[in-house]
Amino acid sequence: MKRRDFITKTTAATALLTMSDLALLASEKNQKRHITILHTNDVHSHIDAFNANHPRYPNLGGAAKRAAYINSVRNENPNLLLLDAGDMFQGTPYFNYFGGELEFKLMNMMQYDAATIGNHEFDNGIDGLLKQIPNAQFDLLSANYDFSNTVLNSFVKPYKVFKMDGVKIGVFGLGVKLEGLVDKKMYKETVYLNPLEIAQDMTRILKNEEKCDLIICLSHLGYYYKATPETISDLNLAAKTKDIDLIIGGHTHTFLPKPTLVKNLDDKNMLVNQVGWSGINMGRIDFYLEPQKATTHQAERIIIV
Amino acid sequence: MKKYILIFLTLFLVFSCKEQKLYVSKVEASLIEIKNQTPVTTLEQEIAPYREKMEKEINTVLSYTPTTISRKDGNLESSLGNLMADMCYEQANPVFLSRTGKPIDFALFNNGGLRSDIQQGNITVGHAFEMMPFENTLLVVKMTGDKIAEMVQFLMVEKKAHPVSKQFNLLIKNNDYQLNINHLSFDKNKTYNVLTSDYLQGGGDNMNFFKNPIQITDIDYKVRNAIIDYFSKTTSIQTQLDGRIKTE
Question: A34-289 falls under which CATH superfamily?
Answer without folding.
Answer: Metallo-dependent phosphatases (3.60.21.10)
